[in-house]
Design brief:
CATH class of chain B: Mainly Alpha
Number of helices of chain B: 14
Number of helices of chain A: 12
Low-confidence stretches of chain B: 421-426
Mean pLDDT of chain B: 92
Low-confidence stretches of chain A: none
Shape of chain A: globular
Number of domains of chain A: 2
Distance between the termini of chain A: 59 Å
Largest sheet of chain B: 4 strands, mixed
Strand content of chain A: 5-15%
Largest interface: A-B, 63 and 67 residues
Strand order of the largest sheet of chain A: 2-1-3-4-5
Helix content of chain B: 40-55%
Number of strands of chain B: 14
Oligomer: heterodimer
Structural class of chain B: alpha+beta
CATH topology of the largest domain in chain A: Rossmann fold
Strand content of chain B: 15-25%
Radius of gyration of chain B: 21 Å
CATH architecture of the largest domain in chain A: 3-Layer(aba) Sandwich
Number of strands of chain A: 5
CATH class of the largest domain in chain A: Alpha Beta
Largest sheet of chain A: 5 strands, parallel
Order of helices and strands of chain B: EEEHHHHHHEEHEEEHEEHHHEEEHHHE
CATH superfamily of chain B: Cytochrome-c3 Hydrogenase, chain B
Chain lengths: 259, 431
């Protein structure tokens, strides 16, 4: 069916490192083709030209950590037909969600001489805690090939194909020998969502959970295996308290080992 | 011009990494206030590092910045290695230089082609620029891709690499694995040369400053990971002395701490500083090209930083090729690490300038205290001072034009706001 106009794409930033939106600019071979298919209406990292909403697709990077941002996300939701969150900050609160386990005032006073100048919330929370999200793309950072899949899917009115199985399946598919079995290296692969193409084990290190929990992960069993390999309770807490610390399954598992 | 106060406001600065705003207040033709407001939400890295294991520091600090994660990883591993009393040399040291070359190429080419060049040519972004100059933008994208391929080969992926560790790497490449990179780098070196000639032909505003340039200086190399901290105004200290010579101050309007010299004066870090202080350490090819485009140091016009970034990219391609040609794999991918209770610090040259890390660790290797000073925090004061001098001569311009020029003056520094709070909205107020 001929399109009367190009769909409008917006890219929004909240508390984050900019890496996930950079993934779009890192699609060096595809960027100009993408720009030919969509109207890049709001993408401050790339352009000073701003087109008013509403937008057909909003990509949201980062977590909600300030009162101002907690309001801003509602405006973005209202102006967007579809809203897709990209990356661990937007889908789970990010590494900055470690404050959720502590007193934020202590964090403030460690970094700033005059904490009163800083406006911040006690928690760092995912976008879905605040507004309805149409799709969540995992990863710290996201995989740029998956980002292109998400863009392509939404432009064609279909669901993105991003498998929810564990990193283990990706290791098997690329023929990587299991680092936990063969080398005794603790690995979060069995409970971690696929998407990175099992990168760490292919570099002889254990997965550290960039893509967050997979569907129905057996975290308790994995922790027991880690401890059999010599990991302490502290090590287990730290492992689950990484870039997806506030994702439900990882949060509960770290809290279980903290008592 | 009336005697009223006017303000120039840019509410969200574009084509910078992170969120910031600019506020300028004018009374008659005098600039009475300039505030570079960084409202990027704070993420408290220095606080959340406490209690983490030393081996996690390179992975965690990488997340401060998606554009220059290697810089964070390099400063982290070097600081921790200093605390533990070890140093990495030979092929592992060469590989660290190589991966840093990749990040410089990727980050500089992103800034030169996608963020900075559109200003000089009057386009809002590189996508619009590509409509009329597709080959130019394609060249930039392919150069950037070459840098990313180096980082991905050695680091596992471009953003937040997974292969950097205290002591070395998790896995090192075989010689033949680096050969495909060498082929691409030969093309990239030519493309970088064309980039230098192209950027040198851009129109530059007449503007210069008497800056205090601060950069690392190494006895015989262009600096990446090692050297003394030197300036053009007599500073010459070991990195360990950083805290005695530089201070950080919190200002009410910004979430990023401002850095300054102990006497309160501003200083400039980044490509201009490195170039002016280390020109004699560049490869003969780069020195020759610099003379050809008539940009020998000292270069004091920050708008010309786009040419210097291109020259540094040419150097990074040249140096990466040299490192690949002379590479012999090490016996082990990393040296052994024995934690001990100690404090260690390091400075490395991030694409945007010196990045300082300091860690206090306990005998089990747990981080007890961390301090991180990113380059953009160090340049904030200089950016504000540039604007104070830049605006008065341009008050007859239309508000839109003046605002754009102010944005461009800020983009000269390739500010990374995500790092600095760990940037920009323009407000010009005229009374």
């Amino acid at each position: 069916m001929p399109r009367s106009r190009k769909p409008k794409l917006a890219v929004w930033k909240f508390a984050s490192c900019d890496g996930c939106q950079l993934s779009l600019l890192d699609c060096e071979d595809e960027l100009l083709a993408v720009a030919g298919e969509v109207d890049i209406a709001y993408f401050l990292e790339a352009s000073r030209a701003v087109v008013k909403g509403p937008y057909d697709l909003s990509l949201v990077e980062g977590s909600i950590t300030t009162p101002r941002d907690a309001e801003r996300i509602h405006k973005i939701r209202r102006a967007s037909k579809y809203l897709v969150t990209i990356g661990a900050c937007a889908t789970a609160g990010g590494i900055q969600a470690l404050r959720n386990f502590k007193d934020v005032n202590e964090f403030l006073s460690i970094v700033y001489a005059t904490p009163a100048y800083i406006e911040t919330l006690k928690t760092s929370t995912p976008i879905a805690d605040h507004v309805t999200v149409d799709f969540e793309l995992r990863g710290c950072p996201i995989n740029k090939r998956q980002l292109l899949e998400v863009l392509s899917a939404f432009l064609h009115g279909r669901r993105p194909n991003t498998p929810p199985h564990s990193v283990c399946i990706e290791c098997k598919r690329r023929g990587t020998v299991c680092v936990m079995v063969a080398r005794g290296t603790p690995c979060l692969g069995p409970v971690t969502h696929a998407g990175c193409e099992a990168l760490c084990p292919s570099y002889h290190r254990g997965c550290y959970g960039c893509f967050g929990p997979m569907e129905t992960p057996n975290t308790a069993s994995l922790s027991a295996w880690w401890q059999r390999l010599g990991a302490s309770e502290e090590d287990v807490v730290r492992a689950f308290r990484g870039f997806n610390a506030y994702a439900d399954a990882f949060r509960k598992e770290s809290e279980r080992h903290e008592q | 011009m009336s005697n009223k106060t006017r303000t120039i406001k840019v509410d969200y600065l574009a084509r910078v990494e992170g969120e910031g705003a600019l506020f300028v207040k004018l009374k008659a033709d005098r600039v009475i206030d300039v505030k570079l407001k960084i409202f990027e939400p704070p993420r408290f890295f220095e606080a959340l590092l406490r209690g983490r294991h030393y081996s996690e520091a390179p992975d965690i600090t990488a997340r401060i910045c998606g554009i220059c994660p290697i810089a964070y990883q390099m400063s982290a591993v070097h600081a921790i290695e200093r605390a533990f009393g070890v140093s990495v040399d030979g092929p592992l040291r060469a590989l660290r230089r190589l991966v840093y070359c990749g990040e410089w190429i990727e980050s500089h080419m992103l800034h030169v082609y996608m963020l900075h060049a559109p200003d000089f040519l009057g386009y809002p972004d590189a996508i619009q620029l590509a409509r009329e100059h597709r080959e130019i933008v394609q060249r930039g994208l392919q150069l950037k891709k070459t840098g990313n391929e180096i980082v991905a080969q050695l680091g596992g992926r471009e953003i937040h690499p997974i292969n950097i560790k205290v002591g070395g790497f998790y896995k090192v490449p075989a010689r033949r694995e680096l050969q495909p990179l060498a082929e691409k780098l030969k093309w990239a070196r030519e493309a970088a040369l064309e980039t230098v000639r192209w950027t040198a032909s851009l129109p530059f505003p007449e503007f210069a400053g008497d800056y205090q340039f601060v950069a690392l200086r190494h006895p015989d190399e262009y600096p990446f990971n090692e050297g003394r901290l030197v300036s053009n105004k007599g500073l010459d200290i070991a990195v360990d002395q950083y805290d005695q010579f530089f201070i950080e101050e919190q200002v009410p309007y910004s979430n990023a701490l401002h850095s300054m010299l102990a006497d309160g004066s501003a200083y400039l870090v980044g490509p201009l500083a490195r170039y002016n202080l280390n020109f004699d350490r560049l490869s003969p090819l780069v020195q020759e090209v610099a003379r050809e485009v008539e940009l020998e140091p000292p270069c004091r016009n920050p708008f010309q930083s786009i040419v210097v970034r291109s020259l540094e990219t040419l150097y990074a391609c040249d140096e990466a090729l040299r490192l690949i040609e002379t590479y012999e794999p090490p016996e082990a991918p990393a040296i052994d690490i024995e934690p001990r209770a100690a404090t260690g610090c390091a400075c490395t040259e991030a694409p945007r300038g010196i990045l300082y890390h300091r860690y206090r660790l306990d005998e089990r290797g747990i981080i007890r205290d961390a301090k991180i000073v990113p380059p953009t925090a160090q340049n904030q004061k200089t950016i504000e001072e540039d604007l104070r001098r830049f605006i008065p001569h341009r008050l007859n311009r239309s508000p839109e034009d003046l605002t754009w020029q102010c944005e461009q003056a800020i983009r000269n520094y390739d500010p990374c706001i995500s790092c600095a709070t760990h940037f920009l909205k323009l407000n010009i107020e005229r009374e």
